[in-house]
Specification:
Layout lengths: L5 E6 L3 H12 L4 E5 L13 E3 L3 H11 L3 H7 L1 E7 L9 E6 L1 H13 L4 E5 L2 E7 L2 E7 L4 E9 L8 E4 L2 E4 L11 H7 L5 E7 L2 E3 L9 E3 L23 E5 L2 H8 L23 H7 L7 E6 L6 E5 L7 H8 L10 E3 L2 E7 L17 E3 L9 H19 L13 H12 L23 H11 L5 H23 L1 E2 L1 H10 L9 E2 H5 L6 H4 L3 H9 L4 H12 L1 H18 L17 H10 L4 H5 L6 H10 L3
Parallel strand pairs: 1-2, 1-9, 2-6, 9-20
Antiparallel strand pairs: 3-5, 4-5, 7-8, 8-9, 10-11, 10-19, 12-19, 13-17, 13-18, 14-15, 15-16, 16-17, 21-22
The chain binds flavin-adenine dinucleotide.
């Protein structure tokens, strides 16, 4: 039925589990993916969308590393938008609206085409652990499956409890069973567990909506895509989303249900996502606002189901219905599914190493929502990193980690394991101190060679990246060396209200002006000729534009990152005795003993550790 012993068992086929299984198998590990329902691989539990602010950058990083989320997001997209295009390139964030069913179907197809990967549908109810070393998993039917490493990606399923108004029942997601057994076993092994909650809005029948009363939200005129590979193409047709608003009447109706709300009557005690609050939470916290935005998003190409983004709620279904009917365009609304909230177990991520291996059990990894994060992209990227590291461990090779100046994924994991999280953690650009370096346009430059070295990114990907790099560098050099006459450039500058130049000069200087774009440069024959002769595509043009316009900022951040990396190089032995450092504050000694940072740089980010504590540590390390 199974192999005698797998290299890697992945428990759960959500976003984390799917990436983990793909990465481990693609790196040559015999891998088994065990999940409760093979029909729901990479199911989008909440909004049908991938990417967005900071999350779009993570998706590009996953793709650059050889993961599948970017490709699947492209092939199942129904709308593309580059968010924040009016801001600097560090903030540009790709986002797609997805066809929920296609997304899951395409993931399953990808996984089925992956070598070294077996599948099995069942609930894992426990782990086989000997002397704090993982040996395999136990299933609810009593099977024992052996493995050298195990990756847990249980998402919102561990002791999941669904709430709608004053009713609650066990479940991992609407229509799916909760998972039992694992939390208790892990606690017995010494793990600390906690409880979090999240919520989702109602889904409605598009045939019952009046879109003429809403504002249309079309996709970009020139859509782009996530994957750097040539496997996918930008969309040629798109579906629109729509915007509507709540009103004071809607708020009054919602308030009538507050006494039956699990959020307010004490039924839900755990913490929810701060940046994705329920509609009742928004009304309660921002009482002065008389309306809130709602995005009405199609769930796919060929379905009438719509997702009401911004109206997440666990109020009783009759209250949800009555209130939504008062919103413009929803007067005759019919529900497909009511909104609900879910509480689930998570494990504070300070119990993990940078590889996402647990400190307590050798060979056991955690990835995704089980680590207190929220969001598909956050989950997928952890799955990828856990899958890579489990495969490397089996091959007895060096671990693979990313620093804060290399990737958002590095920031995410470092934040989780160094600071922990007491509320569902989602990524923001503000969490990254080097966001000018961590852009969506250069994730391939940052990461593809690393992934190629460990055997994950393919040769084709590597060649594509090298080709793009070569072409981009040559084009930047062209701008540095190419002169332009006043007759050629001044009409272009005038058209953009930019001051004229009074003598011939290098193109780089004019292109670096804030309001001059690549489109303007292309009006010059020399530039257009270069583009045509060297067959430069959009990726190269975008890349070069950023490199020219933001050269100063990029250089400055590189210098700062180098400084940080110097501290990153000061390693701390794994079993270092902080209690012996009497000149360090008691709080710092206590926290560092718990977190066991690997470097002085990581130690400096632990909450409660002050600059003076870092100095003590540096002196002790002979610096
Ligand atoms: P999941 O996608 O939950 O997948 C877990 C997988 O593990 C499932 O396939 C399950 O069947 C399987 N599994 C679990 N236990 C076992 C077991 N013992 N044995 C075998 N298989 C098992 N994110 C946001 O960013 N914003 C939101 O507003 C938001 N709202 C949400 C609302 C709800 C109601 C839910 C359920 C989720 C919401 N999310 C939201 C979170 C988002 O869905 C998750 O962050 C993401 O799906 C986590 O991915 P994951 O792979 O960690 O887990």
């Amino acid at each position: 039925m199974f192999k005698d012993r797998y290299d890697v068992i992945v428990v759960g086929a959500g976003h984390a589990g799917s990436e983990a299984a793909a990465a481990a198998a693609n790196m040559g590990s015999s891998t088994l993916l065990v999940t409760m329902n093979l029909q729901n691989i990479a199911q989008m539990s909440c909004n049908p969308a991938m990417g967005g602010i900071a999350k779009g950058q993570i998706l590009r990083e996953i793709d650059a590393l050889g993961g599948y989320s970017g490709i699947v997001s492209d092939t199942s997209a129904i709308q593309f938008k580059m968010l924040n295009k009016s801001k600097g390139p560090a903030m540009w964030s790709p986002r797609v609206q997805s066809d929920r069913m296609l997304f899951s179907q395409h993931w399953r197809e990808r996984l089925e085409q992956t070598e070294n990967l077996d599948f099995y549908q069942e609930m894992v109810s426990g782990l086989i652990v000997e002397n704090h070393v993982i040996r395999g998993v136990k299933t609810s039917l009593g099977l024992k499956i052996k493995a050298k490493t195990v990756i847990l990606t249980n998402g919102t399923f561990l002791n999941g409890l669904i709430h709608i108004g004053d009713k609650n029942f066990g479940g991992g997601r609407a229509g799916e069973r909760a998972s039992f057994g694992i939390t208790k076993e892990l606690e017995d092994l010494g793990f600390e567990a906690g409880r979090m909650k999240t919520g989702t809005p109602p889904r409605v029948d598009g045939r019952s909506l009046d879109f003429s009363k809403m504002e249309e939200q079309p996709g970009d005129e020139k859509p782009w895509k996530f994957s750097y590979s040539k496997e996918t193409q930008p969309l040629t047709k798109q579906r629109s989303c729509w915007m509507s608003y709540t009103s004071p009447e809607v708020h009054e109706l919602l308030k009538e249900g507050f006494d039956r709300s699990p959020m307010f009557n004490g039924a839900i005690q755990s913490t929810g996502p701060r940046y994705c609050p329920s509609i009742e939470d928004k009304i309660h916290r921002f009482a002065d606002k008389d309306r809130h935005q709602m995005f009405v998003e199609p769930e796919g190409w060929n379905t009438v189901e719509y997702y009401v983004n911004g109206f997440s709620t666990s109020l009783p279904e009759d209250v949800q219905y009555k209130a939504l009917k008062q919103c413009a365009g929803f007067e005759n609304v019919k529900f497909f599914r009511p909104g609900y909230a879910i509480e689930y177990d998570y494990f504070p991520p300070t119990q993990l190493r940078h590889t996402l291996e647990t400190k307590l059990v050798d060979g056991l990894y955690f990835a995704g929502q089980i680590n207190g994060t929220t969001g598909y992209e956050e989950a997928a990227s952890q799955g990828l990193m856990a899958g890579i590291n489990a495969a490397l461990k089996v091959q007895e090779k060096e671990e693979f980690t990313l620093s804060r100046s290399e990737a958002y994924i590095g920031v995410l994991i470092d934040d989780l394991i160094t600071k922990g999280t007491e509320e569902p953690y989602r990524m923001f650009t503000s969490r990254a101190e080097y966001r000018t370096l961590l852009r969506q346009d250069n994730a391939d430059f940052r990461l593809t060679a690393k992934a190629f070295d460990i055997g994950l990114a393919t040769k084709e990907r590597m060649q594509l990246m090298e080709d793009k790099k070569e072409k981009s560098e040559a084009f930047v050099e062209f701008f540095k060396n190419q002169s332009v006459t006043t007759e050629e450039i001044n009409p272009i500058l005038e058209a953009k209200d930019s001051s004229k130049v009074d003598q011939q000069g290098k193109l780089f200087k004019v292109f670096a002006r804030p309001n001059i774009t690549m489109e303007d440069m292309r009006k010059l024959e020399s530039v257009e000729n270069f583009i045509q002769t060297h067959e430069l595509d959009n990726e190269v043009l975008e890349q070069v534009e950023v490199q020219v316009k933001y050269a100063g900022y990029i250089e400055k951040e590189k210098l700062n990152a180098d400084k940080l990396n110097r501290l990153e190089n000061v390693k701390i032995p794994e079993h270092f005795d902080y209690t012996a450092l009497k000149s360090m504050s008691f709080e710092a000694r206590e926290k560092l003993t718990k977190i066991k940072p690997r470097t002085v740089s990581q130690a400096s980010r632990v909450s409660g550790v002050n600059p003076s504590d870092v100095s003590v540590l540096l002196v002790h390390m002979g610096r």
